[in-house]
């Protein structure tokens, strides 16, 4: 669980940094965005592998497992929902390094050398997520970024970030996120969160 | 160079501080710095009295430092788009105490903030790099660049003025034609030395992404400029055209895996250049092989040590600077934790690896949180290629002697730069009991970083930029 929490924290932090970097002077820095996305991808893999391991421990007899792709759109969507309330808390100093177990598993699952194959598949997953969200939320026109600003290295990612935040706007405080029972009960804090409202204002300003 | 039995060591030669006041006033403060190290304490007292709040604004952060080919001039660029040039005082018999200090020679605003209307983006005026051109006449030329535009500046001295014009009087006003009764020849009269900087060429609109490097070719006619995905070749006389020689932009931007982080021409072979990537690789290209140098001639990469692989491995392996040695036989690369020296004839691994601050390896997570992991440190060679230098945190900088395999950590700070005293070596305590005079890793100030350093091309004089302060140290035998 430590590993999962840590990975999630880093994912949250990366999302926040990426979002923040769009607003800084000089525009989107390609190198920085690339590095952030690399960290996010690593954190995501670590999180997923830790999750799979946790599932392994809980249900050791099941020969077949749900493919990791299908619960994923939900997971990461919820991650990003919880990302904003947690953003304020992520600035605490990191004292624990990823558990050895997580690291070992990760190094065995990753291919050596260039992980070029992982990048396109990551983008594919993001597009799946997009489709899932399209059905669930309506995005008002004014919240969509103008085409000029959507240019850059990761236009799809930008749109995804956009939609996930605007999805929060549309979803009221009464709708709790659906969580699979296997996951820990995480505190679901909503509206009266200054960080969230700031981010929402930023989205509107976009 | 490193403290030995004889009284050797690095002493502070000149210190200049950029302060948060409009540019002219800050120039004045710099000018008063031309004094012996013995006067340092006095000047600081004076400075602190002048301002209640000794804080500075971010526009004063030094973003590049570069000696010219002779070492007599030192150019610095800052985040506010200004260039300040220091000149070395001639050591003369009349001023035996001057010891070759550096004084402000010229200050000018090189770049202004711009706005890209098409993309609704502001273009920062921060000077990313300055490169001098070899001197060919009395004037000095340098190239300075921000994220999008490169400018060629001419710095010239004027110490004579013409007097006795026929058509205008001394104020410059036109004389009444009826008043002109006789013809005279204007004569040149001496005047106070004035240093003028004028932009001679502006090389614009060639880069979609942010320029990270410029490098003057050994033919002294061309230069390259590199951004995240492309490298362009320019001729110094031609501003409306440039040749694209490297393009690593993928057809689909979503497949992007690496970017160009630095590029440099070979110091002697005008057809060879190298560029480094965010994946920790260096490619050497020969312009004779094809017009578009997408295929490298040599590929330098050190295989990753699987045992040291961690979460942030990819980020810290990104190369932030690449520099050829003066001989042209070696090149040096700087990644987040180490400096590596490569032999151009061996692509499989570097010939030397020097750890700069290995104690940070266990702190990568917190360094990611405070954005320090993205810091781009530079590195430099000394004139004889026997030593290399690079910066670190807490205003520390490190020097490595390649022959004796010794290294030293020094600190650039006012408190430690006492007059006539050598810089004391510093040590970071990595664990266990902290000895006296050691500093523990947790006490390091990560806001005080030395990203830019420069070494005089011939002598043991170094320039170190610590945020908004410039320190110039000289190695002298007592």
TrEMBL record, chain A:
A matching Pfam family: IER
Domain of life: Eukaryota
InterPro entries, sorted: IER (IPR008653)
Region annotation Disordered: where it falls in the sequence: 58-150
Family: Belongs to the IER family.
PANTHER family per UniProt: IMMEDIATE EARLY RESPONSE GENE
Designated name of the protein: Immediate early response gene 2 protein
Source species: Heterocephalus glaber
From TrEMBL, chain B:
One GO cellular component term noted in the UniProt record for this chain: protein phosphatase type 2A complex
GO MF: protein phosphatase regulator activity
PROSITE patterns: PR55_1, PR55_2
Keywords: Repeat, WD repeat
Domain of life: Eukaryota
PANTHER family tied to this protein: PROTEIN PHOSPHATASE PP2A REGULATORY SUBUNIT B
Family assignment from sequence similarity: Belongs to the phosphatase 2A regulatory subunit B family.
Protein name: Serine/threonine-protein phosphatase 2A 55 kDa regulatory subunit B
Source organism: Heterocephalus glaber
Top-level taxonomy: Eukaryota, Metazoa, Chordata, Craniata, Vertebrata
């Amino acid at each position: 669980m430590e590993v999962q929490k840590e990975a999630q924290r880093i994912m949250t932090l990366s999302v926040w940094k990426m979002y923040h970097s769009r607003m800084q002077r000089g525009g989107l820095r390609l190198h920085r965005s690339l590095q952030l996305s690399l960290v996010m991808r690593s954190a995501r893999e670590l999180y997923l592998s830790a999750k799979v391991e946790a599932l392994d421990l809980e249900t050791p007899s099941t020969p077949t497992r749900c493919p990791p792709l299908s619960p994923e759109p939900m997971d990461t969507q919820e991650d990003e929902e919880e990302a904003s309330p947690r953003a304020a808390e992520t600035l605490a100093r990191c004292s624990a390094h990823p558990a050895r177990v997580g690291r070992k598993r990760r190094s065995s699952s990753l291919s050596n050398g260039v992980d070029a194959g992982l990048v396109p598949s990551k983008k594919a997953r993001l597009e799946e997520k997009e489709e899932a969200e399209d059905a669930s939320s309506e995005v008002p026109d004014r919240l969509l970024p103008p085409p000029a600003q959507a240019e850059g290295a990761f236009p799809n990612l930008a749109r995804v970030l956009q939609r996930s935040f605007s999805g929060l706007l549309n979803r009221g405080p009464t709708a709790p996120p659906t969580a699979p029972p296997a996951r820990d009960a995480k505190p679901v804090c909503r509206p009266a969160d200054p960080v969230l409202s700031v981010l929402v204002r930023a989205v509107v300003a976009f | 160079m490193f403290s030995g039995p004889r009284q050797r060591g690095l002493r502070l030669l000149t210190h200049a501080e950029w302060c948060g006041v409009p540019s002219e006033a800050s120039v004045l403060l710099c000018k008063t710095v031309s004094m012996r190290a013995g006067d340092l304490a006095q000047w600081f007292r004076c400075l602190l009295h002048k301002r209640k709040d000794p804080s500075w604004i971010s526009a004063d952060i030094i973003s590049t430092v570069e000696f010219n080919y002779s070492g007599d001039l030192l150019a610095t660029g800052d985040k506010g788009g200004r260039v300040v040039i220091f000149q070395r005082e001639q050591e003369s018999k009349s001023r035996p105490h001057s010891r070759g200090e550096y004084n402000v020679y010229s200050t000018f605003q090189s770049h202004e903030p711009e706005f890209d209307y098409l993309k609704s983006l502001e273009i920062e005026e921060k000077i990313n790099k300055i490169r001098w051109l070899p001197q060919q006449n009395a004037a000095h030329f340098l190239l300075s660049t921000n994220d999008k535009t490169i400018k060629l500046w001419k710095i010239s001295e004027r110490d004579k003025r013409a007097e006795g014009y026929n058509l205008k009087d001394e104020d410059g006003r036109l004389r009444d034609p009826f008043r002109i009764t006789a013809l005279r020849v204007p004569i040149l009269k001496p005047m106070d030395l004035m240093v003028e900087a004028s932009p001679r060429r502006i090389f614009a609109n060639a880069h979609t992404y942010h320029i990270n490097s410029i490098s003057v070719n050994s033919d002294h006619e061309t230069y390259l400029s590199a951004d995240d995905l492309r490298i362009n070749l320019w001729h110094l006389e031609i501003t409306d055209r440039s040749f694209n020689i490297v393009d690593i932009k993928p057809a689909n931007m979503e497949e992007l895996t690496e970017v160009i982080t630095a590029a440099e021409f070979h110091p002697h072979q005008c057809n060879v250049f190298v560029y480094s990537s965010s994946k920790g690789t260096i490619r050497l290209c020969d312009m004779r092989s094809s017009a578009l140098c997408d295929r490298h001639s040599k590929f330098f990469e050190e295989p990753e040590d699987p045992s040291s692989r961690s979460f942030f491995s990819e980020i810290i392996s990104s190369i932030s600077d690449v520099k050829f040695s003066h001989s042209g036989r070696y090149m040096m690369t700087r990644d987040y934790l180490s400096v590596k020296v490569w032999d151009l004839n061996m692509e499989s691994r570097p010939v030397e690896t020097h750890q700069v601050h290995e104690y940070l390896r266990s702190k990568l997570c917190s360094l990611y949180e405070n954005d320090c992991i993205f810091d781009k440190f530079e590195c430099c060679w000394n004139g004889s290629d026997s030593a290399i230098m690079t910066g670190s945190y807490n205003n520390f900088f490190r020097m490595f002697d390649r022959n004796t395999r010794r290294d030293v950590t020094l600190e650039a700070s006012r408190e430690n730069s006492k007059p006539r005293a050598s810089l004391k070596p510093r040590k970071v305590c990595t664990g266990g009991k902290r000895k006296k005079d050691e500093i523990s890793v947790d006490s390091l100030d990560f806001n005080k970083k030395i990203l830019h350093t420069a070494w005089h091309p011939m002598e043991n004089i170094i320039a170190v930029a610590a945020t908004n302060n410039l320190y110039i140290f000289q190695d002298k035998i007592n």
